[in-house]
Amino acid sequence: MDAQGEKIIRIAELEIDATRLAEYRALLAEEIQASIATEPGVLMLHAVAERERPEQIHIMEVYADRQAYEAHLRTPHFLRYKEGAANMVKALRLVDVDPVMMQSK
Q1: In what order do the strands lie in the sheet with 8-16?
Q2: For the chain, what is the domain count?
Q3: Bridge partners of 96?
Q4: Is 103 a domain residue?
Q5: Which domain does 56 fall in, by range?
Q6: Residue 23 lies inside a defined structural domain of this protein
Q7: pLDDT score of 20
Q8: pLDDT tens for each residue of 25-34
Q9: Eight-class DSSP state of 66
Q10: Residue 4: pLDDT over 70
Q11: 77 domain residue, yes or no
Q12: Both ends of the chain: CA-CA distance in Å?
């Protein structure tokens, strides 16, 4: 299997308690920054909010492989995020996706 086929690519769709949105965004930013800075297997984490419904957050996640993804789930910064966000997240849907065309500049 080629390197592209081994990557784990996922979109996390979250609904956040609107009264805690600023707190959630700060927690998420901290987690993403730590993941990118310290985990070589975390290739990309992009978080966006819907303009008309800012409590709807979408996170595009790309990991080098399954091992990198599973290691990410055990890191202190991810566990801190998960615990801290537990009462802020009203809904979570994880969607595994296959790349069609992914480029950046």
Answers
A1: 42-49, 56-63, 8-16, 89-96
A2: 1
A3: 10
A4: no
A5: 7-96
A6: yes
A7: 98
A8: 999 999 999 9
A9: H
A10: no
A11: yes
A12: 27
Q: What is the CATH number of the domain that holds 14?
A: 3.30.70.100
Does 75 map to a domain? Answer: yes
CB atoms within 10 A of CB 85: 19
Tokens of 22: 């600023």
What is the token pair recorded at 46?
């992009």
Structure token pair of residue 52: 């008309």
* pLDDT tens track for 42-99: 999 999 999 999 999 999 999 999 999 999 999 999 999 999 999 999 999 999 999 9
- In terms of C-beta distances under 8 Å and separation of at least 24 residues, what long-range contacts does 28-35 make, across chains too? 28/57, 28/59, 28/81, 28/85, 30/77, 30/81, 31/77, 31/78, 31/80, 31/81, 34/75, 34/77, 35/72, 35/75, 35/77, 35/78
Contacts by 99-104 with C-beta closer than 8 Å and gap 24+?
A: 99/4, 99/7, 99/9, 102/62
Tokens of residue 90, six digits: 């009203």
